[in-house]
Amino acid sequence: MAYETIIVEVEDHIALVKLNRPDAMNALNAQLMSELADAMKSAQTNDKVRCIVLTGNEKAFAAGADIKMMSEKSYTDVFTEDLFGAECAEVTNVRKPVIAAVSGYALGGGCELAMMCDFIICSDTAKFGQPEVNLGVMAGIGGTQRLTRAIGKAKAMDMNLTGRFMDAEEAERAGLVSRIVPAKKLMEEAMGAAGKIAEKGMVSLMAIKEAVNQSFEMPLDQGLLFERRMFHSLFATEDQKEGMSAFIDKRTPQFRDK
Ligand code: DAK
């Protein structure tokens, strides 16, 4: 599929997916979401890719769903189309690690898209928000659910009910982002993190991602059992033998994803 609203580059085992509608602050329209879903699916099946970095530009990761596209839609339209439902599922179904590198605005669907990734690294210029209330609607792809799990009820209510933006420092304090870096260093930091991840064994990476995500779905005792069983299962892999032998032999492990 040839892309017009995103740019994808695969290098050194990292797929860099860049949202590319700069004139519209990377607003998410149907074409962009469909291209993004396709890129994520391809990255999942491409053996050369071990980690994905999703980013925008310096001004905006994405300023939300495209308001111009949505303004004419009726209830019947959005309900029957299930606006962005399938595309979001492609993003969250990716089993390889996905990092969001956020600079500038991550608003509405943009903030929600960043939260669909495994973790967020942002620049000191980042601004997060769920301003849908200003449009007479509400968040629809995670802004009341993933955000609440990430930063707690008080801040999630505040963000959703007032529509205010949260800056990078507040986002880090609240646990929405894992790291803040100066804007110029954002991509270096995100690609560095992706590079570190890409060196690990894919079986461990996928198991870790699945176990952390299960923590949102299960009570603690079941989550701990799930984690333990996943841990046990990794002893069936060659990577476990290699990782532990390499430690004992004082050498760098050569993981083979087996
Ligand atoms: N949609 C369409 N165009 C947008 C846009 C957006 N969300 N955000 C910005 N733009 C466009 C502007 O219209 C403008 O285009 P022109 O007028 O030049 O043609 C251009 O980007 C530059 O924007 P500004 O001139 O406004 O730039 P400023 O620096 O002054 O302000 C801003 C930047 C990001 C603060 C401002 O543009 C802004 O407030 N944007 C809207 C933010 C917003 O309200 N986002 C939430 C949208 S609602 C669901 C799926 C998805 C969703 C819900 C449900 N389901 C599956 C159930 C998501 C909903 C949303 O995200």
Description:
- The protein has helices at residues 30-45, 67-70, 75-81, 85-93, 109-116, 146-151, 153-162, 168-174, 186-198, 202-214, 220-233, 238-248; strands at 6-11, 14-19, 51-55, 60-62, 98-102, 105-107, 119-123, 127-129, 165-167, 179-181.
- The protein contains 12 helices and 10 strands.
- Strand 1 and strand 2 (14-19) form a beta hairpin.
- It has 258 residues and is of the alpha/beta class.
- Helix 1 packs parallel to helix 4 (85-93) and helix 10 (202-214) runs antiparallel to helix 11.
- It has 2 domains: 6-198, 2-enoyl-CoA Hydratase, Chain A, domain 1; 201-249, Lyase 2-enoyl-coa Hydratase, Chain  A, domain 2 (Orthogonal Bundle), CATH 1.10.12.
- The structure holds 4-(N,N-dimethylamino)cinnamoyl-COA.
- 4-(N,N-dimethylamino)cinnamoyl-COA binds next to helix 2 and strand 6.
- It catalyses: a (3S)-3-hydroxyacyl-CoA = a (2E)-enoyl-CoA + H2O; a 4-saturated-(3S)-3-hydroxyacyl-CoA = a (3E)-enoyl-CoA + H2O.
Brief digest:
The chain has 258 residues and is an alpha/beta fold. The chain has 12 helices and 10 strands.
Tell me, rounded to a whole number, the average pLDDT: 97
- Indicate the proportion of strand residues: 15-25%
CATH superfamily of the largest domain: 2-enoyl-CoA Hydratase, Chain A, domain 1
Number of spatially distinct domains: 2
The CATH topology of the largest domain is: 2-enoyl-CoA Hydratase, Chain A, domain 1
Query: Using only CA atoms, what is the Rg?
Result: 19 Å
Tell me roughly what share of residues is in helical segments. Answer: 40-55%
Spatially, the strands of the biggest sheet line up as: 1-2-3-5-7-10
- Global geometry: globular
CATH architecture of the largest domain: Alpha-Beta Complex
> How would a crystallographer describe the biggest sheet?
6 strands, mixed
Enumerate the spans where pLDDT stays under 50 for 5 or more consecutive residues.
none
Helix and strand composition category? alpha/beta
